[in-house]
């Protein structure tokens, strides 16, 4: 019985960490879309002053999301984030 409770607690902790990662991914994705739309508007207006930095920030958001995705795969494969 005690082992079953430990397994359920570990499963609950895993699901909470997955949900936290998914919320972070959605937040970063929304920021990335916002930055990308600013970059495209500036590029279409032939003003590259703001287009290049926002595109670079959007690329940084992509790297953050890829890192979170790798972390999520590690949690799913190993059962723990470490």
Describe the structure.
By secondary structure, the protein is an all-alpha fold. The protein has one domain. It has 2 helices and no strands. The chain has helices at residues 2-44, 48-78. Helix 1 runs antiparallel to helix 2 (48-78). The longest helix is centred in the first third of the chain and has 43 residues, at 2-44. The radius of gyration is 19 Å and the shape is rod-shaped. The two termini are 27 Å apart. The model has no long low-confidence stretch (mean pLDDT 83).
* Gap from first CA to last CA: 27 Å
Specify the overall morphology: rod-shaped
Overall radius of gyration: 19 Å
Total beta strand runs? 0
Largest beta-sheet characterization: none
* Number of structurally distinct domains: 1
Total helical segments? 2
């Amino acid at each position: 019985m005690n082992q079953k409770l430990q397994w359920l607690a570990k499963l609950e902790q895993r699901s909470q960490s997955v949900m936290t990662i998914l919320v972070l991914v959605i937040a970063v994705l929304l920021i990335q879309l916002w930055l990308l739309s600013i970059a495209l508007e500036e590029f279409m207006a032939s003003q590259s002053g703001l287009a290049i930095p926002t595109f670079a920030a959007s690329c940084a958001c992509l790297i953050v999301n890829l890192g979170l995705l790798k972390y999520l795969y590690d949690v799913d494969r190993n059962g723990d984030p470490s």
